[in-house]
Structure formats: C-alpha cells, structure tokens
Specification:
Length: 190
C-alpha cells in the first residue's frame, strides 16, 4: 500500500524560465495544453493573491474599469473604510486587496465596533502615485503577450506565468505608490 507521504510528493512542481529582470519568461505556445497550465496558474493567483478578471476569481472583486479605487468600493463610507483600519482612504487612488464592487444587495458591517478591522499591511493598502488606481494595465510585472489567449487576455503576468486582461488585478500589483498613505490623519471631512 502506498504511503501517504509518497502520495503527497506525487504532484508536479513547475519551474518556468526566469529572465534577468526576475520575472517569468512567456513561452511561445498557443496550444490547449498551454492554456490549461495558465488556467491553473491563474487560479493559483486568484486563491493566494486575490487575482480576478471576467472569468476567474471572485466576481465582486473584479473591476471592469480596471481602476480598483477606494471611491468605487463597497466598503468605502465617505473617507472611512469599513474593513481596513486606516484613518482616511484616498478615494481616487487608494486601494487594497479587498476591493469590491458597489452593490445595493451587499450590506457591510461597522467592524471597528468589534475590533475586527484588517490592518493596512494585512489588506495591502496603498495609494497609486498615478492618482488613478491600479489594474494589470498599470502593473510593471505585465507585458504585452506574444498573442492573446482564447479569452482575449492580451497581457502576460511575469509574476504568475499566465495571460491577464488589462482590467484584471491582484494584490502583488507593482504600480508605484505614494509615500504618504493619507494626508489628513483622523480627519473624516472631505
Ligand atoms: S481600503 Fe480596500 S476595502 Fe477599504 S475602501 Fe479601499 S479598496 Fe475598499
Ligand atoms: S500583472 Fe501585476 S497585478 Fe496583474 S496579476 Fe500579475 S502581478 Fe498581479
């Protein structure tokens, strides 16, 4: 009878080529087998790094506009965040890994009352230096794909080895950040 430890070690560990910039190198392969590998790599990022696009990841966390800015997040209450423990959010260019679409049927909770808010670090909150937001189209780890995949994802993610759409995003987004997280500590006024 096979030993449990042996069974665990039966899975495949992929080691794609890494370039001088430290990012994975896209392979020139348009086959269904390659898309199957990419689907799995993309799902890994959806699970571990909150990646979302129109076909993958948690759909409420996908922003068709590709900005993912706090002002358009279900958890923003004026300049407060109901989820993240931060004195003041930047509604135009702030974001975190917990961004969610605004939906009337998705009520939120005042978590600060139960001392259950996430820290800025745990949420991955940052303010984009571009003043507009995030998305794969603003991430330095994305490059033009050799060719789009069959779902028309036309960028390649060098962090996860799969093709992405410009309006997708994940918490590893490398867009340059402003140094200051907020301008007016503890001020709730606009
Ligand atoms: S900090 Fe995160 S959860 Fe809070 S409003 Fe901004 S994107 Fe939404
Ligand atoms: S391109 Fe950047 S934001 Fe998009 S999945 Fe890759 S690391 Fe994340």
């Amino acid at each position: 009878m096979a030993d449990d430890d042996d069974d665990e070690n039966d899975r495949i560990i992929l080691s794609p080529k890494v370039g001088k910039d430290g990012l994975f190198v896209e392979v020139d392969d348009d086959s269904p087998e390659r898309e199957t590998v990419e689907i799995h790599n993309r799902e890994r990022f959806a699970t571990h790094f909150k990646y979302a696009d129109k076909l993958c990841g948690l759909q409420p966390t996908f922003d068709e506009k590709g900005d993912y800015n706090c002002g358009r997040c279900n958890q923003a209450d004026e300049y407060e965040c109901l989820l993240v423990d931060i004195p003041r959010i930047d509604r135009d260019a702030g974001s975190c890994g917990d961004w969610e679409k605004i939906r009337k049927g998705d009520p939120e909770l005042r978590l600060e009352k139960s001392d259950a808010q996430k820290s800025v670090t745990a949420a991955g909150y940052g303010v984009a230096a571009n003043g507009k937001g995030f998305g794969c189209h603003r991430c330095p780890f994305a490059s033009r794909a050799i060719r789009p995949d069959s779902a028309n994802r036309d960028l390649y993610c060098g962090k996860g080895d799969f093709r992405v759409s410009g309006n997708a995003c994940c918490v590893l987004n490398g867009a340059p950040l402003r140094k200051k997280l907020y301008d007016n500590p503890r001020s709730r006024a606009s």
